[in-house]
Amino acid sequence: MKLKYLFGVSSLLFLVSGCTTKPIGPETLTVMTHDSFAVSDQIVQEFENQHNVQVQFLEVGDTGTAVNKAALSKDNPLADVFYGVDNTFLSRALDEGIFETYQSPLLDDIAPSFQLDPTYHALPVDFGDVCLNYQKSYFELADLTPPATLDDLTQPAYRDLLTVENPATSSPGLAFLLTTVGFYGEDGYLDFWQALVDNGVNIVNDWETAYYSAFSQAGGPDPIVVSYSSSPPFEVLFSEEPLEEAPTAAVTTPKTCFRQIEFVGILKGTEHRELAEAWVDYMLSPTFQEDIPLNMYVFPVNRQAKLDDTFQKYLDVPDVTADVTPAMIAEGRERWIRDWTEAVLR
What we know:
eleven-stranded mixed β-sheet, 40% helix
């Protein structure tokens, strides 16, 4: 009886100890992202080592799909942090109330023009400008001036030279549609698109098809394509042979490009608030920001982040981009896509 009693006390002490002792090992921070997210392994490891945490990335589809999933699961969040909502879906994310507010001290190093949410629920991380790109050699050989405005694309000289992406299936396609709405207004953008159709525009479903199959720089038939202002420096960076100049150029005249800004936010209901704040700060820090361009082909918003010399030399950043606010996009996005589909594809 005595031995049995002692065993019972020992077991009870073990059980009580097991209930009160914290598990050994790092916590897990889950970051939900769109499918285009990429970061260097060493950058993630540096954060994990600093905070004794394991960072787990949950890719859930394109930007629109990711916002939908975050909204549908907001009462039982799938992650602690969500990165990748951009200004085409920002108002929807804010209206759904998926984020907690957090005013990171790193915002002091970020220009106010990137900070589109004054309530600090969604904090800017990176930006990219969707612009027309053209192959320089084509226009040199054809003795044709490259397009400088959207109106140029409707002229006979540019017939059958342009490929664009479907705004219903492509992020840059949607960005270009928004550019045309901003430039021509709701009363005129469909007339512009009808003129493009009459002038032989080629429409594909995604950027990869547009750039790597239809664009003449990659062997396709069309010397003009909707891409990014960053595409020319990347042509230099990834060329098999050293290049003295970029073989392509971006059209960056006023209001011909759309600026996409991507944001990060702490998901409401996270059980790792302090770690989530630390991760947001890390994404806004120069260490993370300088890793962005060569992984996601977009650019840092932190003024302290330094760019590769190739970008300094070949990147052309537009001074004036399309004037379409997140509120305008939230109100008109689905209608514009629907009306575009009816007018252009049917």
